[in-house]
Amino acid sequence: MLISATSLSLRSGTATILDHVDFRVAAGEIVVLIGPNGSGKTSLLRALLGLVRTKGEIARKPSLRIGYVPQNFARDRSLPITAGRFARLFAKRAAVEASFERVGIAALGDHQLASLSGGELARVMLARAIASKPELLILDEPLAGVDVAGEAALYHLIAQIRDEIGCGVVLVSHDLHVVMAQADRVVCLNGHVCCEGKAEQVVADPAFAQLFGPHVAGELALYAHRHDHVHPHASTGSA
Amino acid sequence: MDDFLWRATIGAALLGAAAGPIGCFVLWRRMAYLGESVAHMGLLGAAIGLLMGVSPLIGVGVLAIVAALLMARADNGLIPAGSFVGIVGHAGLALGFILLATMETVRTDLLGYLFGDVLALSNMDLVSIALAGAVIVLGTIFFWRAWLMMTVNADIARAEGRTNRFAEVAFLVLVAVLVAIGLRVVGALLIVALIIVPPAAARPLARTPEGMALWAALIGASAAPLGVAASYWKDIPTGPSIVLAAIAIFLATTLGARISDAVRARA
Q: In the predicted model, what is the mean pLDDT of chain B?
C-alpha cells in the first residue's frame, strides 16, 4: 500500500466536506475519484498530500515519491520562466527532456510558461509530474483545457506510464467516459464514499444512479460494457 | 564632491543591489504589503529603542523580524491576509507616532526613520549596510531554488516534499533585515519602492528568473548615483530622488518594451 487514509473528516465552518472517508492506493493501481461538484474530491486529494489538515489517520509508505498536478495552476506573467526550466526545478534535465518528449511537447521546453495555451499547460504539468518517476501520481483534473482527441491519448499515456514505472495513480476527472475505461478501481465520493469497485460495478450501483441521475448511470453502464479499450485513432490524436 | 555625498551614493547603491534579487520574490509573490507593514512596525521598533535608550537600529531589527514572522502566518479568512497584515502594520505605525509624541527630544531622530536620512550615513552605517547586504545576497543565492519552487507553486512544492520550513523563515527574516537597514536610507514610507521598483523595471528585460534578479540588482544599484546626482544638481531631497530615479528606469524599460513589441508586431 502506497498511502492509506482512515476515517478522514474535514469541516469548513458548519459544512461537512469529508465525512469518515477511507481511501487507499496500492502500487500500480489507477484509482479514479468521481463525484459531483462540492463532493470533496479535491479536499480528499489535498488531505492525502498533507496540504490540508483533517481528522483521521493517513499512513504513507516511508519517503513516498509523489508527483502532483493541481487542479488550477495560476501562472504569473511577472515571473519570466520557460516551461523546461519550471520542470527542471523539480527533476534532472535528462528526465525532464525524456518526459517532455513522451508527452509530445519537446518543442515547448523553451516557451515561456505564462504564454502557453490551456492545453499546452496541462501537458507541461503532466510531463513535469512524471519526470521524476513518482511512486504515486496524484492528478486533479489534469487535462482541463486539452482537446478531446488529445485527452484520450493522454489518459492512455498515463496508463502506459503506470505500466512502465509501476506507480499508483489517483485521478479526479469530470470526463467519466474516458476515465472509467482506464480505472482499476472507481471511488464515488459525495462527502462520504458512496460506492467503490470496478467501473462496471460502480455504474450499476443504485448509489451511483442516485448521485448522477439514472440517465448518466444508464449511459455509462452501456459504455462500460462496450468500451473497455482506447480506440487506436483516438490515441494518435495530435495537439 | 563632499564625503557625505559619496557615503550616500555608496550606501544607497549597496542597499539597491541587495534589494533587487530578493525584491523579485517580493514582487512575484505579491508580498509588497508585507514589506510595508514590516516597515511600519520597524518605526515602532525605532521609537521603542530610543525610549529604552538602546540603539534604535536594534529596536527596528528585532521588531521587523518578529513582525515579518508573525504576519506571514496570516491566512485568508473573512478578510484577506494582506488586509489583516496592513491592520497590524498600521497599529504599529500609530503606536509609533504616539510614542514619538511623548519624546520631544528625539523627535528628529525618529523622523529620520520615517523619511530616511541618506545624507547622514556614517562610515559605521556603511559597514552595517554592506554586511547586511552581503548576508541578504548570500541568503538569496543559497535559498534561490527553494524560494523559486515556492513561488512557482507552493502546493506542488509542499505536496512533493520539496519545501523546507527554514527557507520560508529565512526569506521573511532577510526581507525584514532589508527593510530595517532601508529605514535609515530612504525611510519607512519609501523602502518598499526600493524593493519592488527595480524588479518591476527589470521584468521586461528578462527571460529567466536569474536574469531578472541580476537586472534588478543592477537597476537598484544605479538608481543611487542617478538619484544623488539629481538631488545635488536640483537641490531636492536625496531619498525620494533615488526612488524617483528607480521609477524613471522602470518607465524607460516598460515603454521600451511596449515600443519594441509594437515594432516587432509590424515587421
A: 90
Interface A–B counts its CB contacts (< 8 A) at 60
Instruction: Read off the pLDDT band of B1 (50, 70, 90).
Output: low
Residues A116 and A26 in one domain: no
Through-space distance between the first and last CA atoms of chain A, rounded to whole angstroms: 36
Give the residue extent of every domain in chain B: 3-266
pLDDT higher than 60, residue B72? yes
Is A138 a domain residue? no
The ranges of chain A with pLDDT < 70 are: 221-239
Backbone angles phi, psi at B248, to 5 degrees: -60, -40
Interface residues of B toward A, Cβ cutoff 8 Å, are 27-28, 145, 148-149, 151-153, 155-156, 158-162, 200, 203, 206-209, 211-212
What letter would DSSP give residue A112? B
In the predicted structure, residue B61 carries a pLDDT above the cut 70? yes
pLDDT digits (tens, 9 = 90+) for B133-192: 999 999 999 999 999 999 999 999 999 988 877 898 899 999 999 998 998 888 888 899
Higher pLDDT, A35 or B14: B14
Of A82, A100, A133, which residue is a domain's last?
A133
Q: Is the dihedral of CA B2, B3, B6, B11 positive or negative?
A: negative
The verdict on a CB contact (< 8 Å) between A68 and B159 is: yes
Residue B155, min C-alpha distance to chain A (Å): 7
Residues contacting A101, CB < 8 A, separation 6+ = none
Domain B3-266 in CATH 1.10.3470.10? The answer is yes
Report if residue A161 sits inside a domain. yes
In a domain, A35, yes or no: yes
